[in-house]
Amino acid sequence: MPASVPFRVRGYKARALNTQAWRVVSFGCMFSSCPAWRLEMKAYSMDFRRRVLRMCDAGRTTREVARAFDVSESWIRLLKQRRREEGIVSPRPSGGRRHGHFEPEHLQRLERWLKQRPDATLESLLERVKRNMALNCSLMAVCRAVKKLGWSLKKRRFERTNKIVRTLSASG
User: Fold this and answer.
1) Which CB contacts under 8 angstroms, 24+ apart, belong to 82-89?
2) Cα separation of 69 and 49, whole Å?
3) Which of 45, 60, 145, 157 could, after both became Cys, cross-link 64 (CB 3.0–4.6 A)?
4) For the chain, what are the domain ranges?
5) Model pTM?
6) In order along the chain (172 residues), what is the average pLDDT of each group of 10 residues?
7) How many CB atoms lie within 10 A of CB 151?
């Protein structure tokens, strides 16, 4: 691919550059079966970072260095600030795993509540979690915890449903 060819991916415009490494990442939509797309930027290499800083140390302005390497001026300023304050030029760790609110003890307690009242709604479980466990979480967090325990959201009720049933035939 040539050095600076623009391309489009579902509404995102990006440039594939030899100094920047763009990566298209696919992830599933939460409420549909269609895949979604987003662009994820890889961190600049250590060699590239050192070359940028060498040019800055040689007396070139931030704007000149940014134009020479086709990076943003703000990134160069942040890189210089990080070197000055922390003595580090390596990229910060990106992303990381998000942990849920519910520890194993909380999950056991939630399962006991579900066994006591299998027809409990998520709203009632959320109220009980906030009151008894002192956890500040969302309705979706409770939903994920219930699913993690293997419970479905639709519970079969054990009481008789209220139906109006035709007792006489229409011809009678």
Assistant:
1) 83/53, 89/46, 89/49, 89/50, 89/53
2) 10
3) 60
4) 1-42, 43-91, 104-148
5) 0.41
6) 44 43 45 51 90 95 94 95 93 76 89 87 90 88 89 58 59 56
7) 16
